[in-house]
Each structure stands twice: as C-alpha cells, then as structure tokens.
C-alpha cells in the first residue's frame, strides 16, 4: 500500500508512533538526527514518515525537528541546571548543530532570536541584599 493511500486512522497511528518515539527517546536532541534515524527507530518507511509529517503537521522534517528543539528550549530555560549555561550551550543542548542554526530556527518559527526569547520569558531569581 502506498503512503498516499493511508486511511485517516493509519495516519493518526503513524503520527502517534512518531511522536511517542521522539518524546520518549528525545532523539531530536541529537544534532545529527535525520529522517533515516527516525525510520530506524520507528520501523516506518522513510517516505511514509515524510508524508505523515508533511500532511499531518504541515512542516518538512527539518522544521518539525527544529520545532521540537525550540519547545525543549522553552521548557528548559527556567530549570536550575540551565541557569549557568551560556546561550550557545543551551542551543547545543537542544540539538542544534550551531548557534547560527538555532538562531535561524527561532527567527523562522517564533519571529525572534533565542536571546530575545530568554529576555522575555526567563524568570530571574530575586537578588538577596
């Protein structure tokens, strides 16, 4: 059966499996994570994964993974173990290959740079005097 002939139920199943594997293994944190890696982890054929992400998420694979990385960044910026990290280390911890790649993804998907996001949403501890 071709991926274009998948039923709605099959599409939901594949999408749920992709999401589950990505969430449980945090594969998107690997800076060299690729579509073939996801194929290997899920057992879903490459073209089917690509089709599911494109048709159900309305993004290409790279954008989808970068959105996962951005969401991870958003969830971690106020964690105690991230307080001492530089922005570059934070970006790398999210799976981006470089600071530039992280900045491009943030600008594309959020409209602001990661540094601006930090200024807006990072909670700073009150100073003790």
From TrEMBL:
Keyword terms, alphabetized: DNA-binding
Entry's transmembrane regions? none
Span of domain HTH araC/xylS-type? 19-120
* UniProt keyword annotation of Hydrolase present: no
Name the PANTHER family for this protein: ARAC-FAMILY TRANSCRIPTIONAL REGULATOR
The molecule here is called HTH araC/xylS-type domain-containing protein
Annotated organism of origin = Flavobacterium frigidimaris
